[in-house]
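Worked example 2:
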Amino acid sequence: MPSRTSARSAKAVRAAGKSSPSRKPGKGNMPGKKREVPWALLGGAVAIVALIGLLAYSLVPKYLDQAAIREAQTDLKEWVPSQENQDPSTKIDGVVKQEYPAGLHVSETQRVAYDKAPAFGGPHDSAWANCTGTVYTKPIRMENAVHSLEHGAVWITYNPDEVDAAGVEKLSNYVKGRQYSMMSPYPGLDSPIALQTWGHQLKLDSADDARIKQFISALRENPYAYPEVGASCSNPIFDANNPPPFDPSPYGPEAVPMDGDGLTPDLSEMGGAGIPGMPSIPVPGGLPSGQ
């Protein structure tokens, strides 16, 4: 039998356990207020993320577009003309060359019996097509375009039935905002793409062809390859949105022949005469009487 002393001790221990205070709770066990969700802060964060996404969506494509244009419009040094290498295009496979008389003007109602399609030399309208990096969405009259070539421009044409939207965009990168450049559709073109400068032409199948950049580097504003050196490409009276229309119909007997028979050469356009960059701007149809 347990002793009385032992029984008393056990009872004392149980009593002490019941009456002793509980352990001091730690911070993690302290009762606290219910945590509130910082909706305003979260809303602000979401708005910032959305704004960043919107800016990226808006600016990144523009940045990439500008980068593509800069790359397209950077001339290839090995194809840039010099005194020692006046016509680098002679090394480009497929380039067709032809000598043409310069400074032969027709009126806005006359047609020229061009020997090439698109034409790249010969008699032309006294008003040139604006070629300050102009991307025409409509076909333009060849007589105006050829005058732009006489000023040193490169003219990119494409068959709208054979070049898709991506190809048109890629071609336009060579032209957008670049002086002495222009581009337009050419219905019925016998190749998907054709590039023209005065006396030079290159026909291609793809907008990815490396020869496009070679041709432009070699011949755009090449002072050894076009007649009217120093002439401007700006012609504000030539409406880019509504240019004189391209006429695809066959030439009639009244068309001006390629040799310009019956035309008087404009000597001011021979050999780059006049003030560089500041020629007069011919108005289609001529000036009113007495001006």
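The helical segments are 4-19, 39-72, 142-150, 165-172, 211-219. Residues 82-249 form one domain.
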